[in-house]
Amino acid sequence: MKKSLVALALLGAFSAAHAQSSVTIYGTLDAGFAKTTNTTPGVSSPTTIGKRDNNKLGFRGQEDLGSGLKALFQLEIRFEPDTGTIEGVTRPLFQGQSRVGLQGDFGTIRLGRGLTALQESTVAYEPFNGLPNVAGFQTDLQVGGYRTSLAGSGSDPLGLAGNSGNRFANGVFYNSPVYNGFQLNFTWGTKENNGGPGAAIVGRGTAAAPQYAAGAMGSAYPYSVSATYTEPGSAPRYSILLANERNATEAKLWQIAGYVRPMPALKLMATYNKQDLDNFIAAGKPNHEMDSWVVGLNYTMGPGKLLLGYGQKNPDMVAKTKQASIGYEYSLSPRTYVYLDLSNKKLPTTATATTEITQNHYSMGIHHNF
Amino acid sequence: MKKSLVALALLGAFSAAHAQSSVTIYGTLDAGFAKTTNTTPGVSSPTTIGKRDNNKLGFRGQEDLGSGLKALFQLEIRFEPDTGTIEGVTRPLFQGQSRVGLQGDFGTIRLGRGLTALQESTVAYEPFNGLPNVAGFQTDLQVGGYRTSLAGSGSDPLGLAGNSGNRFANGVFYNSPVYNGFQLNFTWGTKENNGGPGAAIVGRGTAAAPQYAAGAMGSAYPYSVSATYTEPGSAPRYSILLANERNATEAKLWQIAGYVRPMPALKLMATYNKQDLDNFIAAGKPNHEMDSWVVGLNYTMGPGKLLLGYGQKNPDMVAKTKQASIGYEYSLSPRTYVYLDLSNKKLPTTATATTEITQNHYSMGIHHNF
Amino acid sequence: MKKSLVALALLGAFSAAHAQSSVTIYGTLDAGFAKTTNTTPGVSSPTTIGKRDNNKLGFRGQEDLGSGLKALFQLEIRFEPDTGTIEGVTRPLFQGQSRVGLQGDFGTIRLGRGLTALQESTVAYEPFNGLPNVAGFQTDLQVGGYRTSLAGSGSDPLGLAGNSGNRFANGVFYNSPVYNGFQLNFTWGTKENNGGPGAAIVGRGTAAAPQYAAGAMGSAYPYSVSATYTEPGSAPRYSILLANERNATEAKLWQIAGYVRPMPALKLMATYNKQDLDNFIAAGKPNHEMDSWVVGLNYTMGPGKLLLGYGQKNPDMVAKTKQASIGYEYSLSPRTYVYLDLSNKKLPTTATATTEITQNHYSMGIHHNF
């Protein structure tokens, strides 16, 4: 449950019922100490001030339009707490999301920019809360290498350099109502170029010719679809996810994930992914296809919560990535916790390398929602 | 009427009367589908997610200083809903405005950056609500080509590349009280350079020599003045505007506009402009002078509103621009409407061309104020 | 006392006590006219729209965690009121600060980016309220030339070009409780490079070899410490400050400052500084060492306040800087005042010059807190 500021529209409260305006200011500040060994081979990073979660400052609201219809908006600034800049220095101001839409019996439909259906649904099945921390699995392993470090991959391959790889710009976002535990989510995007630098996304068999030059539009309308079934009720004992996404450069991703709670304090999770980059990487070349899997658990003990996870990624002709992580959260309140994360990761030295490197990571800090 | 959040200063409410602090958070999210044919000759844009109105997130407040005097401030972020970036990616964070000042019996005086008197007054006489959408007339035809696409023209010709052309930075903004329907508005700016890239603003008769190099100050103090007379009362049947502006590179603009409401549901509008770039374009050269006019109407039918407009721009030695537009708004509430716009526009292929191109445009979407 | 908006978390007020959420929106808008003579020798700046204080829009809050413990956060946007851009155009979005932490009997500890202990403490001893205006002494004379214009100096020498020189990024900020008037403040930073352009910070005796290239980490963990003693009570008659800071390139700064109030309306202030750049400037070279001092007073007369100050900076082998300033503030309310500042400054023509230039400055404007 998100706790946040609700500043009621007093004008609305004093006037007609249709003007029940409200803007919620919400956000997260998360900062701590972090250290990673072997960030370049043989060299460890110094101790840094880093983050475990995305840091955000958001504004959202809804308006009751009558007959069960609502208008919705949400704007979310992302930033770096250690330097005060916008997330990644160059990302959009409202990196989190900028969306407006309607909600009714038909579900929710929004326009703008936000997480794709697959990327938004998958976090519930990841043992580190779907957070982008180094010890977590969401950004890399849980989406099977489908990410910005590989040209042509990720949800926004034609976006600005440094953009996050799990959102559609120029998107239409649909979420169905929940029917007996079942929900369908669908995201569709235009072929617009979002300022992409035209990294060398080389066509199959034509090594010299990029298929997607700087400023080029997508070759397909990107879409992302996820279907979930979660046991109805306030304490679901199991849930399953099926998802598929195709981006504007026709990278394809399939995902199946699930969790079970054999007892209320214990949540067991697993995800399996498969990615196909056949549109721009010929068979027999590195990263043509890859799969990945993650398993993990959360165990709650009073104010404490233990997080455990292990995962692997297996790209064609490239060294495997293997990661094991353990984390601990201690809640000071429903909105504030402190944490300690440890992880060990073996990964290829470059995105196409067959040699690997081992990194150890620790982080400890404070996470505060408002 | 703007509906928005009013978050009362509870500290103020509980303490002395002079501390009646309030900050209003307000904004607009507008997103929809759009398509324009012939964006380059023979090539139509793909369907895009676009906007009809400026998207904004603002903060404003006032403080009662006693004796009828108030302190006022307003800060307005502008952004692109489809990508989440700041408006135009590179515009100032508070592109909408950043102003502080005093209000009293003498009127309102503010310092900072905002729309000029002419640009702020003119929107009431434009059939598409003064919005910057492609189907509207405000940005191009209603101000007679006085805009950033023509070096030396626009309200801020020495501003950063990509800056909007209808604001003064480093400005003093005065609005008189309304006396029996009459109001005077005056904006004055310094000669400061606002980071202008020094586009080739060529001096008269000296084709090779720009008069305003990169970083150069203005040659004159820019000003903008508008005078309006509007029939007093809550439902004025007629209004007239006279306005004049001279920018820092001495481009000059005159405007006359008016509207009448022959019946409450019908508003008829017209604007005539004349622009003179004689300071830096010699007579007989393209764009030395130009005039433009726009006529249109709004017709309200219950929750629906029909928008119709036609306009022309006639620059010296350059092909005319001709635009016809039709729009429809359907209100879901006083704060939310959906829209459909269609327009047909003939325009020169470049800012100095005598050949023309025809573009058709449609857009449909949702507009939400908060 | 800061007056500002407190928008209570109504959700919290209606639910359990632990969710007493609140976000305070606060800020400052300050704009006015300014003019400086001899900004380049023989040339005066035109009249500009400028500022006396930093302009800010901030968000802060705290959560009661029970047992006297609180979680705190603060995010502060800085901007230029005359152009609407982020402060300095390129500074971080949350240039003011971005910090999160805990407060309890042990004091306050926060992580993120903010003013160093020395820089935060020193403003109480400066006759122009510690504001960064041209007539004030805080930015230049009160910190003894410890500032960004001198490569390797300032609190963040490895930060982005244009960054302010009085903050630590990647910092840990500790403030002790106040014990019988005594308080200790300590700031520590990591050695991380914050995007520094690697200006030529030349090693001692090796004129051609920069010690700190682009992207280089610091050679020491930076720290800043200040200790203050202020007479307990609501109207302290005297206070003293001792402070020391060493930055990531090992520039060192010592400071002693104090004030006395011989009568309630009169506050007399003095500061003495010493800076040592021995780590990267050899003895006998310009700016190897420098000292500076500032004296001043504030005299309150009803709603008016007179500000007077004089200071000198004496760098090795470089012309002295000498500044005299007079200011007047007239309060329209506890949150709003108008001001007039005049100053006369002699300073070296460049950071290493032995020749000097004289600048006169005036500014007048309005300062509004919300």
From TrEMBL, chains A, B, C:
GO biological process: monoatomic ion transport
Subcellular locations according to the entry: Cell outer membrane
GO cellular component: cell outer membrane; pore complex
Sorted UniProt keywords: Cell outer membrane, Ion transport, Membrane, Porin, Signal, Transmembrane, Transmembrane beta strand, Transport
Annotated Porin domain residues: 7-344
CDD domains the record matches: gram_neg_porins
Protein topology in the membrane: Multi-pass membrane protein
Quaternary assembly: Homotrimer.
PANTHER family in the cross-refs: MAJOR OUTER MEMBRANE PROTEIN P.IA (PTHR34501:SF9), PROTEIN YDDL-RELATED (PTHR34501)
Protein name per Swiss-Prot or TrEMBL: Porin
